[in-house]
Design a protein that fits this description.
Immunoglobulin-like, mainly beta
Length: 136
């Protein structure tokens, strides 16, 4: 998969793909409409960030490429890829417990903070996409 050249795109299955961890300098794309939401992405080698209707959705340090990103009432799922291991922060419901799996392996239950943020570490190291699932 590698990177998303257009920074963000809608997929035929209703998901979105975004992020380009190969960019040396920060690029952003605003006012991308998808399923009635206005999305904004900022991405480059050091960070990838996604907002929906000016609300925080996703951030990775360093930058990543995300495919098949889908939010539901029960959580979020996507595949992520990058050159280095990443710290990923997701914007979810506040004070809610989620089951988290990375690469098909459960890493347990985690609870969001008052701001609804959930932090996970994902081992990437340039070995291809890793599937992440976060479900209530």
């Amino acid at each position: 998969m590698a990177v998303v050249e257009q920074l963000i795109k809608a997929e035929s299955d209703g998901t979105i793909s975004f992020g380009n961890y190969k960019l040396p300098e920060k690029k952003k794309l605003e006012n991308f409409e998808h399923n009635g939401n206005i999305l904004k992405v900022k991405t480059y080698k050091d960070i990838t960030k996604l907002e929906s209707n000016e609300n925080f959705v996703y951030e990775s340090v360093p930058g990543t490429a995300v495919t098949g990103f889908k939010e539901t009432d029960n959580g979020v799922e996507f595949s992520v890829e990058g050159d280095n291991d990443a710290q990923i922060t997701l914007g979810l419901l506040e004070n809610t417990e989620y089951s988290v799996s990375v690469g098909g392996n459960s890493i347990g239950k985690m609870t969001t903070n008052l701001g609804g943020k959930l932090n996970i570490s994902v081992e990437l190291s340039g070995e291809g996409p890793v599937e992440v699932r976060v479900c209530k």
